[in-house]
Each structure stands twice: as structure tokens, then as C-alpha cells.
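Encode chain A's predicted structure.
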Amino acid sequence: MSEYSYISTIGQDSHRFGEPSGDCSIMLGGVPVPSKRPVLANSDGDVILHAITNAVSGLTGKIVLGGIADKLCLEEGIKDSSVYLKKALEDLVDSEIIHCSMTVECLVPKLKPHLDAIRAKVGELLNIPASSVGITATTGEGLTEFGRGEGIQAFVILSFRKKI
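Encoded structure for chain A:
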């Protein structure tokens, strides 16, 4: 009989919005979401996938964002945040993700119509069922720059099962 330990990690990411540019979309959890303002970022600025990548780094100790991802983005022109996440997942040894819980803080765009698609895509990227992906969204009652519409922020908690 195998024995397991259970570990949780946290990841966070945030980006400012640029000036309104008409109709565009931002990436959230690998899903394009209509927005009036673009995200200011070198990459596609997907705060959900960046937060997940940071949470994976919390287990592996390998820094992807600010390291490997910078090389991929700035030197090789790879802007797709799912590529960065896949790089982080390569370092999981004797561990598997069993649950992902995330919360996004922003005034705009409104996320409710996109939550199911985000859950499905994140589940696909993490190789877990969408039913093991939880997502909430809040404006934070306008108490922060995110809740006032100046940017977007995500926090993620990943739960892992690790063979011991």
C-alpha cells in the first residue's frame, strides 16, 4: 500500500489594465474573455495561469515566472502562458494535482459568463476534472485598485497528493 502526503501551495499574480482600446479580449485561465481594456504584460498576461504556475513553483521550488518564462517570452517570443504552466508541470515528481481553487479580483470584465469555460480549460491543463477546479470572482467592494477597475488579480491554491 502506497502512502501519501497532502500538500497545498498558493500562487498569486496581478496586472494593470492599459487604456481602453475598444473591443478586445484578455486571457484568463487559457480562455479569451471580452474586455474593453487590454492587460499590460510582456506575455498574454493571463493572471490565472500565472498564479497557477507560481503555485506549482511553491511545490517544486523551480522558479518559472521571472526566470524560464522571461527567456521564453522575451528571447523566443512565446507569449502563451499555458506554455509556462506546462514548463512548471514538467518538474512534478511523484506528485499529482488533485484540486485547484482560485479567486479573481476585478471590477471588469464581468467573469460570471466565462467561469465554466475557465474551469474546463484549467482542468484540462492540470489533467484534473473540471469538478476539481473551483473559481470565484469578486470586486472586493472597490477597496483596491483591482476592484476599482485598474487591473486584475488572481490567487490560487493547489492541492497535491505526493508519494512518500
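Helices lie at 47-60, 64-75, 81-89, 115-126.
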